[in-house]
């Protein structure tokens, strides 16, 4: 063997792990998305024909209702972002810059809506606002104008913004805490008024945080399926993800149109990402050194107003929907005023052999399996990624990023195509395996993120030392890297478990007929008019996942 | 991921190459589908893999499996679904035994699909509501009094076909009728079962767009309801069976179709209160008195062409529209 060949072999051997990781991600994420995009361009490409090039897109352009719907979706996501800014930025400012008492509670009040799945909040709001709902029962009739307003563009916007303004508040708080007060003080000393201070100093410094949190909210809104499907239909506001869902699941099926709308949705998400990154890079100049700084003292009126804001937002974003959810789940028979209470619905969904219990066990099994697989594979991929360089690493990085940005519904539609292609000889579609695969593909980014953060802080010197002492690749990974990664992976496991337990859109698209997860159970029961069962299941799911989260937090503090 | 794939390979049921198994996708009622399948298995000794679901779910699965077909025989609850597959060239023509004993007009003229049975979508009334000559216009304008419901056409295939057939029969006047019905306080139920539940409890006095065999099932059990066919016509919903063009077991598929049209199976069809395709099988006692009512004469190809547009327009302009109720604001 020539030395050159030996060097090449050695190089290939060194590159093997990253090659495997890249191939895995390509197969799991790249391939379905590529197929989806290809089918949207050539509707019959899977049949081996290139006919009808751009036909679905032509239909989108020609059909007035579709164009209107796309504009609506973009406008709606924009409106959700703006409303979230309006709610979230003052909260962030109060937390970072003032001596508002009880900040811990204020922060906690922001976390509750973030942790609530938006579709459950939307269902609860419908219970409050519909004809004969809580508002009617307790307030004795809601003005028709208010109800009409709620079941319209702005009502749907409000509900979505209420479940996402917390991101903005926390991001703004973090950014403000990192910005020293010197600039503000200097401006004040030079005689700047409060509005000049805000417009000329604070807002420009905060722009990156505002853009980044806005990006998160916009992406979440434009790709959210639950709120448009639950409330959008009642508000006569067709939005992209819900329409894609109907095109894929209800007869007459139109997969080409669904794939082209999915591609557009994907494009919007990617464009938003790049534009906001570009804007944030333009706006954010230089690094600032954080400094301990005096907090802005609030007068009694200021404190009252500050607490009023947090309390009001908490009432709307958490207390009201949760109250509606819990009371409905306990309601026996509705008469005048409040109903008699019963635990019957919980017994019904938890009885052995009932559909509810079946859904719960399916969800539990799938979530545990998905979280475990995500953590193992995600941890390894992150490790390989951090410790490698070169073009393959760039590809891996890009591939791993994809599911973070691409709407879940798009991934799900891509998976349907990918696993029904003529060259696939496995019957994965219409089995629970399909859903497990989808969960892993969609949520592996969480495991990657957590591991990445902790890996970049880890010095490779220990691994080098072990390798020099003769430890093989596997031994280095399992004995040195994994133990150090454990806390991050545990956090990733809990997060993945919780999001899988509540996952709606991939489940509803990919579940085999006859099977249910908790989320599809809630969705279907509500659609079938059995609201009490739906809300009992929602309560059980939220309590269960919250308990898991608390146990994990407590365990970590003790460790 | 690799382990996943391997596991999936282990559990997945790769298509049998021995030509011994027939894959059947069938729309409900499930007990009927299961009975016909197990009877065929017993008489031929072959195995059937049955996938029982709604027509919508079956179409979604067929669409997803378009380039990797698995089904050999499909039973739909709608001729439109079969027609769309026929137009795509996905069905094999076949003339089963006993065709001359059936309602010829129900089948595809080229026999790409043949009817196994049919149902009629009309009005279900509580006893004492309406008269024998109650017609659509009277019902839809709310003159019968009492509360009306309709299974949501986007959820219930039979209600969807009714909305379409009524529109094709009456032209654009249908939209005025639909809106009048909303103003008269019509509520939408999520599915047939919910509408029927409301009718039995007395929450509603009438179901517009009720599929008759489900109502006869209630009548048979002594519920105080009856099926009514307005004199100007009702919607006939054919339930066809078809053989998929890619089937590797064409002979088995044909034998299954023959079996579905045999006398004993058609008697099972009639026992579900459906209208059997064969004319020499007696109707179920509950429906025998009604005979075959007047039905809208609809061209299947034209109906298929308009299906999506009509349903979409119905959904946006009727079902979800804000309509001010005629009598007060209490729906």
The CATH fourth-level homologous superfamily of the largest domain in chain B: Periplasmic binding protein-like II
Q: Which of globular, elongated, flat, extended, rod-shaped describes the shape of chain A? A: globular
Q: How many distinct domains of chain A?
A: 2
> How many beta-strand runs of chain A?
0
Q: Helicity level of chain B, as a percent range? A: 40-55%
Distance between the termini of chain B: 53 Å
Q: How far apart lie the N and C ends of chain A?
A: 54 Å
Report the total helices of chain B.
13
Largest interface summary: A-B, 46 and 46 residues
Q: Could you tell me the mean pLDDT of chain A?
A: 87
What is the annotated CATH architecture of the largest domain in chain B? 3-Layer(aba) Sandwich
Please give the largest β-sheet of chain A. Answer: none
Using the CA coordinates, give the radius of gyration of chain B.
Answer: 21 Å
Helical coverage of chain A, percent range? over 70%
> Can you count the beta strands of chain B?
11
Pfam family, one (chain B): SBP_bac_11
Keywords (chain B): Signal
Protein name (chain B): ABC transporter substrate-binding protein
GO molecular function (chain B): thiamine binding; thiamine pyrophosphate binding
